[in-house]
Specification:
Blueprint (H helix, E strand, L loop, with lengths): L5 H20 L2 H8 L3 H7 L3 H24 L4 H18 L1 H10 L8 H25 L9 H21 L5 H9 L5
């Protein structure tokens, strides 16, 4: 049987705790208890609670970045839009607790980890911007007005729909949710 590294146990416990209580309400004692480790192990692996949650948020964006790169592949136009929409929804559904935390933190610029997370977030937004630009170009439309703001808006639409689905409409199949998001796109 493979043993889960202590660091991974801590991060998983932090996600579960923050999903229930928020990051501010999550204590180091509770994270240690949930992880099944001594409190000293927390500080051995992370210098602070902020470092733990900075890693949680970075990991969320890193997982999304990897999924988007794989999903896009050679897809173009509406196929690429569908691929990134489905990939985003899959990442959200793989860890609804992490999705709630990242959604709550995505626009928080006052957190100690904001400067570290910002470039990772920006890198993810680029995928959405590029897909929107490719879709517009395939339709013969100008891509000049499609900036990172549009990419962030597309991410926000998918994430918002994904959280709505996971929290209030879990009975709906993922492809249906993806099509609801894509229904917003001109065809």
């Amino acid at each position: 049987m493979t043993r889960t590294p202590t660091r991974d146990l801590i991060l998983a416990a932090a996600v579960r705790t923050a999903a229930e209580k928020g990051i501010t309400g999550a204590s180091m004692d509770e994270i240690a208890d949930r992880a099944g480790v001594a409190k000293g192990s927390l500080y051995y692996n992370f210098p602070s609670k902020d470092a733990i949650f900075g890693q949680v948020v970075r990991d969320g964006f890193d997982r999304l970045d990897i999924a988007l790169r794989q999903a896009r592949g050679e897809a173009k136009g509406l196929s690429a839009m569908r691929a990134v929409t489905v990939a985003t929804l899959e990442v959200l559904s793989d860890s609804p607790d992490r999705a709630k935390i990242v959604a709550a933190e995505i626009f928080r610029t006052d957190r100690p980890w904001a400067d570290v997370v910002a470039p990772v977030r920006a890198g993810v937004v680029v995928h959405y911007r590029e897909v929107l630009q490719e879709y517009a170009a395939a339709r013969g439309e100008s891509t000049d007005a499609i900036t990172d703001i549009a990419g962030a808006a597309f991410l926000g639409a998918i994430a918002g729909a994904g959280l709505e689905w996971l929290l209030f409409h879990k009975e709906r199949p993922l492809p249906e949710v993806a099509e609801q998001v894509l229904a917003l796109m001109p065809r």
